[in-house]
Write a structure and sequence with these properties.
heterodimer, A: mainly alpha, Cytochrome C Oxidase, Chain A, 17 helices, B: mainly alpha, 0% strand, elongated
Chain lengths: 556, 205
Amino acid sequence: MTQVKNASVAAVPVHETERKWWHFFTFSTDHKVIGIQYIVTSFIFYLIGGSLATAIRTELATPAPDFVTPEVYNSLLTLHGTVMIFLWIVPAGAGLANYLIPLMIGARDMAFPKLNAVAFWMIPPAGLMLVLSFFLEAPQSGWTSYPPLSLMTGKVGEGIWIFSLLISGTSSILGAINFFVTILKMRVPSMGIHQMPLFCWAMLSTSGLILIGTPVLAGALILLAFDLLAGTAFFNPTGGGDPVVYQHMFWFYSHPAVYIMVLPLFGAISDILPVHARKPIFGYKAIAYSSIAISFLGLIVWAHHMFTSGTPAWLRMFFMITTMVIAVPTGIKVFGWLATIWGGKISLNSAMVFAMGFIAVFVIGGISGVMLAAVPFDIHVHDTYFVVAHLHYVLFGGSVFGIYAAIYHWFPKMTGRMMNEPLGIIHFVLTFIGMNLTFLPMHQLGLLGMNRRIAFYDPRFTSLNQLVTLGSYILAVSTFPFLFNAVWSWLKGKPAADNPWRALTLEWQTSSPPMIENFEVLPVLTTGPYDYGMTHKSTEAGSEPGTPVLSGSPSA
Amino acid sequence: MQGTVDPAKADLNHHAATIATEHEAHPDHRMFGLIVFLGAETMIFMGLFAAYLTFRVVYPEWPPAGTPERELLLPSINTAILIGSSFVIHNAEADIKSNNVKGLQRWFGATALMGIIFLAGQLYEYMHLEFGLKTNLYASTFYVLTGFHGLHVFLGVCLILAVLWRSLKTAHYSEEHHFGVEAAELYWHFVDVIWIILFILLYLL
């Protein structure tokens, strides 16, 4: 700002770039503050969910329920799933979206900043209520909460679960309204739909899924609440109801939920890989439209969670086919990412190793997913540890690795500090080993017939379970280098430049951290988002001021 | 600012900076946001409708044996009132577009009244129905669906009254600035359309 000599500009008040620490505890309407609030809050819930997992694994180190009672065990697994999904990954994605979208499209904030803040502030009470239920009466019927079981375990615990989800679901919907409108309506004029970063395409698809799917979950929860508290029998067979209707309504949301949890990270990976490989993204339009395809297909596969619920054969056939088809757009992305880094000048920093590790581990999860899509196979492994293995490969290996990659990549932008690289690599190695040791043996456990959600298992599964528990302890330990790194670097890390990765997307063309209104002047695009290694028209002398200049990019 | 700023781009910023002193005018996205929100609201009703239709198809006999005959006169009158109110509220928007605030207030008042009459009619019907919430599956879905819709009518009436209240402030609404009026009207039409579907599903079919 001191470079500016123009007198009329000197009259412009200098934007304060300093955010005080206590701003992050207020009802701020700044999308950057809200984004960080989401990410930090959800990470705290990740630690809680992880502690629950460690407790589960400690119990499962031995066949008998000797660490906790079976009832407490049921509460542990219910809260673990619910917390990880609704209070960790879904809000973490919303946090990244909140922080990045306006910066990436050259906007000063989201379309509805106050609504944005409201959406965030619904998360802490929803989460606190759910977690504190452990000390009052915790829900016990799994994160899926199927009736009639969920109507027979404690009313208070189940009621808290339902209420908590109604609040976090509403938060998700309000966030999605903002993302959808902002991406479609507030891009800088020179940024057409095919010039926006792939993270924005991913969030567009994610928002569509949230808006269509989450309300149906709300409907299911309302009917379940009536059954629980008002004595109706929508889902209770003894009163004439049908429990399978709950399953349909529940999974109509909860299958898209898994794409809601992974699509933002697909988008983030698409934006991280080109930067650290110094290569344009391969297949921009293919990757962009595959996100849309995944969200559309994701809405018509839900009953693959219900292959053993008495669904008729023709329905199972339909869902088997649509589920297998969804592997195609996903595969398009994977091949696009591989082609992106192939022959690139790769910097193996923390962000990049997590991004590359993401691809490897997610693909394993994808393969077990295609296996599960086959009805004849699924009916043998449904409700066994094979499913637990699959879901953790895609959710941990996918979403969590993706979130870590995103944090390492955008931390300098968000905090103005660099993270410690060696510590990041140590974090990656421990996480990679821990994750695979924990979840790989679960495939075998499932094939051997070990049921999920049980505290008491057949002793023949003991040695594999002990291996898994060891892996889970390594995973638990792996969190510490990251935590220490994040906190220490935020306070005392090396100050970051505006653009330490020499990236081309708009968030890097402003200060680290950005000034409160994001940009001094709304930016004019001079390159496509992935034009690494290309010469830009703007480097030629005599370009007209004020005219949007777009170089010939592979996206044109 | 440090960093690898492209000198050509910095030049562009210099020239454009003179415009930056003014607050950048930006278009109003609130209507689009409302439409997206109503999309989500539609989905919650669709989920409940789908559940109702599934129960209907799967249940051996529908309505379940012993369900009293549904009376159609009162609900039909109520339907006419609600549909009529959608035309009434439209007059309000026409009026504010010609800067007629008094007209807006009159028509909004009338719409709120019709909405309240609708709700009163629902309450009357509830009190005189021969089946309760827990009687059978048809009864449960009937009460939850109409009740959930009624809640939305109530919210709509509140919105209309809020806009009416704001219109009392001088020059709050005008020919160019009347988003509140349009928003309340769109929400009201939404509530009306949902009722038409409900009426057909629960009463006619």
